[in-house]
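Weekly structure sync, notes
Attendees: PL, DS, HV (note-taker this week)

Item 1: Alpha/beta fold hydrolase
DS walked through the input record. Source organism listed as Paraburkholderia elongata. Sequence as pasted into the shared doc:
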Amino acid sequence: MSSNLYGSARTQFQDIGGVSLAYRRFGKEGAPPVVCFQHFTGTINNFDPIHTNRLAQDRPVILVDYRGVGRSGGEMPDSIPATAADIIAFVKALGLKEIDLFGFSLGGMVAQQVVLDAPELVRRILLAGTGPSGGEGMQEYTPEVQAIVDRPNSTPQERTLDLFFSKSPTSYAAGKAWLERIAARKVDREPEAKPQVAEAQLVALAKWGAIPATDRYGDLKKIKQRTLVVNGKNDIMVPTINAYILQQHLPDARLILYPDSGHGAHFQFPKEFAEEAARFFAAA
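Item 1 (cont.): predicted structure, written out as tokens:
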């Protein structure tokens, strides 16, 4: 088996009722596939090959773009439940009976909704850099984050480094290495997300972050599947306290917080995280 399946797996398309979702599938057959969801405006180009190639040694890996993202058809929905409904339809269209989930940031919110709406499909869940519905500081971006997003005369790569990594030289260097890894694949790449995607996802994030009048974290206790929660010490995108909230309210959750890191902690410690993820999915 090639050691870089992430780099060579072709993009495929699956119809879900008149709309096709773009995806890549690779890895060792025989175990439940791990279906992976991306962050705000991210495409399947943005997954770390160190993570996905390691997981692919043990099981199938499926990277999928939401409706309207990359080469997926249609328009991005403006709610997490609508996006999760697409993913559930996609999984069923592939004929899968049991899956694991790996969601980063907005993808972690989608993963939570998928397991709430189709618990019979999901065996285990890995949540990175994300938070629960109605979490702390999730209603809107902080002034610090908004200033980075709106910064003039900066590249998307420069803004991503400041949003995902801490300001230390070590963290920044790890961030640059990650950007190089996800840019290494030169063929069959997905186009960048269109403005409609960002607009719809911002609305979806605001809805997800709204604090309910009662039973703020009530849905979490319904998620019985074993879960691994991962974040950095100081996540400015989805405040790190939300990782602790997830661990405290999910019935069977483990928590890993990496030092000197932020939203992209799992990219900063890619090999360590990849081994933790592989162990988590493989454990009895």
